[in-house]
Amino acid sequence: MNTGRGKEEGFTLIELVMVIVILGILAAFALPRFADLGGDARAATLQGAIGSVKSAAGIAHSACLARSSCDESSAGQTVSLEGTSVDMNGGYPAAAAGGIDVAAQIQDDFVLGTASGTTIQISADDGSGSALTDCNFTYDESDGTVDPTSVTTSGC
Hints:
Number of strands: 7
InterPro entries: N_methyl_site (IPR012902), Pilin-like (IPR045584)
Number of helices: 3
Protein name: MSHA pilin protein MshA
Strand content: 15-25%
Radius of gyration: 28 Å
Transmembrane segments: 12-31
Keywords: Membrane, Transmembrane, Transmembrane helix
Strand order of the largest sheet: 4-5-6-7
Number of domains: 1
């Protein structure tokens, strides 16, 4: 008659501790990859704003061309987009407040810099109403474009 203990099943305390240690090490290496997703999100938002600006410039320019009273060669024109007045210069939304920011509907989330000739720098908002440095792009009202070389996302 065999009176010994039967075969025990389950994990020992050492095995459980080792699994927890291994999971901790894996988490320590994986955490930095996911820790700063805010910068990536701001960079993606900036890319979305660039698309909005390009589309809005094209739509506003088309609206100007469709109106006989809109003179492409002069400043101070306005067009109405969805009931909102957009300031125009040379047939494209102006590189100033009330122009491209209103046309692209980005005035609440982005900060307009000081206009320089026909261009203006548009920066991501840092959350307090100030511009993030090195998280911006430049809009040119002379042809309604965004220069791809002007896009900076390193500071997002």
